[in-house]
Amino acid sequence: QVQLVESGGGLVQAGGSLRLSCAASGRTVSSYVMGWFRQAPGKERESVAAISWSGFSTDYEDSVKGRFTISRDNAKNTMYLQMNSLKPEDTAVYYCAARVGRMGTRRSQDYDYWGQGTQVTVSS
Predict the structure, then answer these.
(1) Which of 9, 62, 82, 121 could join 69 via S-S bond, C-beta 3.0 to 4.6 A?
(2) Per-residue pLDDT tens for 5-37?
(3) How would DSSP label each residue in the chain?
């Protein structure tokens, strides 16, 4: 089993930055695809970004391209999401997730392990 714990959420003003971390335990996730999802009140959970096991391949949802950067440190069993130029519409609970398999899906049901989520609130 893999346990995932997010941290780094909080309240920030529009235009500000936050860095989310996702620490994995129980098993090394160096061979897993990992991703960040978010869910705003009344909305479905959506993919924000994903990263291959090597870190060489990434995928971003259109609204965050150029503002968010996903990365991972397999030696630390940790994944990150650097969020810059934050907007009020980025407000949501952010979840990290891991899946056995390849890149190429943004569907939450294709991910095998999930964290509990961390709240990100961007004020205008």
Answers:
(1) 82
(2) 999 999 999 999 999 999 999 988 888 999 999
(3) --EEEEE--EEEETT--EEEEEEEESS--TTSEEEEEEE-TTS--EEEEEE-SSSS-EEE-GGGTTTEEEEEETTTTEEEEEE-S--GGG-EEEEEEEESS-S----GGG--EE---EEEEEE-
